[in-house]
Amino acid sequence: MQTELSFLQLVLDASPLVQLVMASLLLASLLSWTAIFDRSRSLRKARKAADEFEDKFWSGGDLGNLYRGLDRYPDEIQGMAMVFHAGFREFARLKDASGMDPMAVVEGARRAMHVAMSREMDALERHLSFLATVGSTSPYVGLFGTVWGIMNSFHALGNVKQATLNLVAPGIAEALIATAMGLFAAIPAVVAYNKYADAVQRLESRYEDFAEEFANILQRQVHMLAGSK
Questions:
Q1: How many structural domains is the chain composed of?
Q2: Engineered SS bond to 190: which of 135, 145, 183, 228, CB 3.0-4.6 Å?
């Protein structure tokens, strides 16, 4: 109990600038943990949605029925399903246009899928730049508080004739607290950023592979339609 009171007293007795540094690091840590939990939930949901949609897509059912099923609930379409929905919609629109070259139809669907995929990746990458910023800057912010606390200690030494440990201990202690808070904010943010950036990259690869496989299916279909005319 005494340690907790002493720690709190050191924070309260710190210089205003060091208190500002500590408060900013605490806020950054709270916001980064909020972003960490948010990204964990979103990426887990995206992986689950991709698995479920791939099972439906490769089950051998009619793609038109799959598209119409998604179209009934447009607000719930996300991830790989959104890529498929955008590609099939553009394919259906161009296919019915008169005089369209078969390859132009497929390329139009491919472009629509890439636009949808870019939007989905932007949503998945939300808050990652903030985690990277917290991870890279928090140690330096803490170091600034450390330097300022040590400067205060030396300044206190310069105003007395005899130096004592009690005189310099508070300044050094607040400096070390600022360092610890900087690391406390940075380390989880860096670990989470690396983990989630890898997860986003893996999902992006899955989306790209699916888009190419779906484009190949559309290409075969459009050539079959052109040959039947």
A1: 1
A2: 135
